[in-house]
Amino acid sequence: MEILAFGVQADEKPMIEKAFAGHHDVRCLDVFLTEDTAPIAAGYEIISTSVNASLDHRVLQTLAAGGTQMIAQRSTGFNNIDLEVAERLGLTVARVSYYSPYSVAEFAWTLAMAVERRIVRASNRTRDFDFRLDGLMGRDMRGRTAGVLGTGKIGEAFARIAHGFGMRLLGWDVAENPACAALGMEYVDKDRLLAEADLVSLHVPLLPSTRHIIDAAALKAMKDDATLINSSRGGLVDTEALVTELRAGRFTGVGLDVYEAEAGLFFLDKSLAGVEDDTLARLVTFPNVVVTSHQAYYTTDAVGQIIDATVQNVLDHLAGRRGENVLVPRTAS
What we know:
- With 333 residues, the chain is of the alpha/beta class.
- The chain has two domains: 2-99 and 299-328, Rossmann fold (3-Layer(aba) Sandwich); 101-291, Rossmann fold (3-Layer(aba) Sandwich), CATH 3.40.50.720.
- The protein has helices at residues 13-20, 57-65, 83-89, 101-116, 119-127, 153-165, 178-182, 190-196, 216-221, 239-247, 278-283, 300-318, and strands spanning 2-5, 25-28, 46-49, 70-73, 92-94, 145-149, 168-172, 186-187, 199-202, 227-230, 253-256, 289-291, 326-328.
- The chain has a seven-stranded parallel β-sheet, sandwiched between helices.
- The chain is globular and about 60 Å long.
- It starts with a strand and ends in a 5-residue tail after the last strand.
- Residues 110-296 form the D-isomer specific 2-hydroxyacid dehydrogenase NAD-binding domain.
């Protein structure tokens, strides 16, 4: 059987081909699954998609009509998939429930230090042989307060790094993580966390209850010199409200690896076509903002685990097994 994989990055292709070798053939496409590209999947029983695929009711109907029976998503998040429609159409859907939390946590800290210590601005200057220090003054992290919204595996890994810096830890989640509490983390309500944290990092999933968890009110509750980091999901932050606060001169820095309207932009080269998204265009002009294109997970370790789990999801489906990663189970024949 040949598997069709959408949205495969050049670095991923040899890893995917190697992982499927000895099991099934795989055809890797660099295009993302959208309403326009969905007809390509006709005749493929199993397809694999990336986090930026669009699997709304129209795409799912096209897939089902073309004979697709299983969607193996290569990500933890699945907010891009209409699971109710998939179930109604008899499509099996699986994701990757776990991969290296250190990849995202370490990258969140990379963003934090990049904005705190003005690394991007300094690098751009030295390329022009401008070695002045004006405007590059940062601050120590030791003794300051890190607020972690979401203390699951990634939030815990982030907190461990913060603890290593010698920071005070505040946490917010629906349930306390004993490992974080053992680091000295104090669990508080969200308002207190935002008011006291010098650094706020987001590590919660995107759900209806967490959408725009950082809205205009939350942003105003934060310290004027706070730093905000989002390496989780773009929809957690109200970007329009964030731009308003940045225009008012607030925040030491903002590091974003995700953006709420990133679909159709991130993972693509828009350098010649330009970007029509006025909010994103405005966002990247602020000197204290660093935006990256959803790459926090993108390490050989994490991607390798994602691909291995995807292969296992496919094998389980073909063997009639329901693995732990299944979101919509196989319809009984």
